């Protein structure tokens, strides 16, 4: 079986979807990076949680901030709330699955911190409870969502940032969210440490 045609179609589809998303995502990504930079300059931190594939994307984002994306620079204070399976299991066993992130936000979140939520699918109760917990802590929210999630965007306030991708399939949504997160990390690096040359 010749897979070339399938591969070429997938790549071409991703290129077209990314190109068509620039106008939709440019302003929200800019606002998200400015909010993150402001928080980091004020010695605040970023907490991140996600549902479904969004959980893996949180790890990608936090790794980019703690390590680096494009340039050598100091580590940035970011925490992935879904990276520790033992902690999640303990919380969900005692408090139910909806409390997985909210309990951590209440314990770790402080006034001025940012909670980044990543939703790659439909509505998710654990992300909704995390939003409520962040409100209690006076945290600002950045939501990387998609057009299948009708709940999370409606929970955001005027000072929060919604980065909403549109994809024809769930895999396309995830591809666009990876692009958005890498761009967000790049903008944060650039905002805090200045521009640099790249190939």
Question: Can you offer a commentary on this structure?
Answer:
With 199 residues, this protein is an alpha/beta fold. Helices cover 53% and strands 14% of the residues. The chain has 6 helices and 5 strands, in the order αβαβααβαββα. A 5-stranded parallel β-sheet has the order 2-1-3-4-5, sandwiched between helices. Strand 3, helix 5 (125-136) and strand 4 (140-146) form a beta-alpha-beta unit. The protein starts with a helix and ends in a 6-residue tail after the last helix.
Q: Return the string of H and E elements.
A: HEHEHHEHEEH
What Rg do the Cα atoms give?
17 Å
Characterize the main sheet.
5 strands, parallel
State mean pLDDT (0 to 100 scale): 92
Separation of termini?
36 Å
What overall form do the CA principal axes indicate? Answer: globular
Give the low-confidence spans: none
State the strand order across the main sheet: 2-1-3-4-5
The computed structural class is: alpha/beta
Overall number of strands? 5
* Quaternary structure type: single chain
User: In DSSP terms, counting alpha (H) and pi (I) runs of 4 or more, how many helices?
Assistant: 6
State the helical fraction. Answer: 40-55%
